[in-house]
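ESCALATION

Customer reports they have been waiting on this structure for their group meeting. Please prioritize. Original submission:
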Amino acid sequence: MRVGMLAPISWPLPPAGYGPWEQVVHNLTEALVRHGHEVTLFAAAGSRTSARLVETCPYAVETWPEAERSRPRRFDAESGLLEGPPDSRILEEMHIGACMQRAAEGRFDVVHSHLHVHALGYGRLLPCPLVTTLHGSAWSRATHGLLRLYGDLPFVSISDAERGFVPELNYVATVYNGIPIEDFPFEAEKEDYLLFAGRLAPEKAPERAIDIARRSGRPLVLAGMVEPQHGEYFRDCLEPYIDGDQIRFLGLLSQGELAPLYRKAAAVLFPGRWHEPFGLVAVEAQASGTPVIATRLGALPEIVRDGETGFLVDHEEEAAEAVGRLSRIEPAACRRNVERRFTAERMALGYERVYRRLVEAS
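Update from on-call: job pushed to the front of the queue and completed.
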């Protein structure tokens, strides 16, 4: 099958650190190529892939040279033009246009967009189906008007829970995100520390992870990025407790750097206060044989088997109590859960079924 894969352009594929959407698109693309499909990947320069790569912009948005990104907006009297930093909206339009031009020429059997809502306007104009995976972007109410306008187009949810954001869309399947399980080696022998991995943002609630660690008397490792808009939250709610002993902060780590932390952690904490549409960290942890203690919200009840691969809780007190029951969880059960449900191969098979149905219907 000829697939046009429209990736996000915030980071190159695969991302070196943060970039969950990019990581999932990379995992899917590589699996589809292994399955014999002719995949054309539209992505930022610097991306690496086994597919045919079309580089649509010279840098990913988040890796653009700092001298250009920080250039002030100003009127240049000599040229008569308004100068300034690169415009991410323009870059996205060029990115989408490169894909849609080829689709309009009949080069693909299906186009698969992972680019938020921004490609939807082309969906009724193409000679082939355009299917969209939102990756939780419908969490933002600002997207709902556009989603409803194109709600008849085919959408794939990454969990059944994700559909709750805008339930009336034309969801044609739920396909769970998948990982290359070989990147997360299994480990049965665990150490004493707890791990929080992810964005250090209020909705992810890393301050709850700190509270759980302190209540249970366990050391905690925090790993993740602090976005500029959350700098004050980090300074006020997290930094006062980071002592380098019980609470350690390692900053943003790549998947390769996270893998050994997953392997030896007693548990990964997932204490978010929002309806997470998926939870790649929870899958990566279980692949390593590490249980997950998660808030009973969003997709986590679909990912974590309560009492078998971790514990689902409603508040910090319950989470701290669950830490004392970690010995009941078999690491091998965590690994089996991922092998059966959340590998890149499983994900690719799910999307292959979607593509075939859409192509046959069109």
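Sent to customer with the following note: The chain has twelve helices and 15 strands.
Escalation resolved.
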